[in-house]
What we know:
Elements: E1 2-7, E2 12-20, H1 22-36, H2 51-81, E3 86-94, E4 103-112, E5 125-130, H3 135-148, E6 151-154, E7 164-173, E8 176-180, E9 186-189, H4 197-203, E10 211-217, E11 231-245, H5 251-256, H6 264-298, H7 305-325, H8 330-333, H9 341-361, H10 367-378, H11 384-392, H12 399-415, E12 419-424, H13 427-432
Parallel strand pairs: 5-12
Antiparallel strand pairs: 1-2, 2-4, 3-4, 6-11, 7-8, 7-9, 7-11, 10-11
Amino acid sequence: MAVSVEKISNLERRMTISVPLAPLEGQIRQRLSQISRTAKFAGFRPGKAPIGLVNQHYGDQVRDEVYSKAVETSFGDAVEENKLRVAGFPNIEHKPFAEAAQDFEYTATFEVLPEIQLKDLSKVKIEQPALEVADADVEKTLDVLVKQRVTFEPVKRTAKKGDRINIALIASIDGKEVERTADNGIDLVLGEPGRMADFDDALLGGKAGATKTFEIAYPADHNPAQLAGKTVSYEVTFNTVSQPVLPPVDAEFAKSLGVEDGNIDTMKTEIKASLTQEVEKRVKARVKEAVFQALIAEAEFEAPKAIVGSEINRLMQVTAQNLQQRGMDPKAIQLEPAMFEEQAKRNAALRLILAEVVNTNNLQATPDQIRAMVDTFAQSFEKPAELVSWYYADVKRLDEPAALATEENVVNWVLNQAKVTNKKIKFDELMAGA
Length: 434
């Protein structure tokens, strides 16, 4: 087997391989002999047909199979011999196998993985958020929990901010009706996020049985785009006005949060413990992201197009699935590869860096670390032992906890070398972060 390698670009290679046919002829004869034992031909008992007849019917098929296998095997051998790290699948080109004489030649064009060298990580600065959950944070969270359990009772007064109204609505643009609510109307809580403030302001002061008309001029960048830059006329009939009723923070409220004896102090202690766990989780996530960003910044290289392309396809599939789960038609959104290119490049680069760091420094997760990660997953379940058993029932299910545990090893490895400083951060700022 003769092999030559041509460097097309930093990552792209073209390999020309010549495979001798003589060794393959024996494989072809052997395969035809196997087929002849069971092949059925008119006028011959099974296994008695002349090998020439078998070759006439199956020769081309067998030859293609043997040659194709030879291409696969020879390519793998050539890659190993030349110590190449192939990225993605090669593009194989060759003349028809039937035209081959003493040997057949093919070319394989492919990309190789880049050489990754990290700079001196001791100069890298990592900021680690620092905060403790205070009693004020507990009270603020308790206030949110109370508002989540709000109920509404009808009132005869006019509507004000925070009230829930049920309205029948007709919307028109340039005198043409574009929207009408169903017979039972729609419920809105005045002042809630997600709508233009001008729309809710126009509804203030409405009373059950009354009708209001008003216009809203939507900005050019409004979403949904159907209303962008348009002036919409509304006719609104108020069916009901209801005021919010917040539950008292008492024993019953505590029991609704899982505190069996209804003790208020126990409830606050459990809220604080839960917040502390969430803070730790978010701090770790921020530090991990800072470490990953530092690794990307410290390793300059070009990610193979094959890997970036594969990541673009993955991101598009995930986005399409998410849109479908939300009841939207992905085809209507017209997802384009260019939308995901930058994120795909970053993901591909990070994946290559992590693989290099892990392999070079033996940072693979240990069985104990994987089990600790599984136990962490199980903490939020009612029956943790059942989830642990589920993970260990199929070794493939351990891929995710193993990957996350390995990432933790990388993070700790970087933190041990970098300059880490604590940065005080407010509770609300941390909780508002993605």
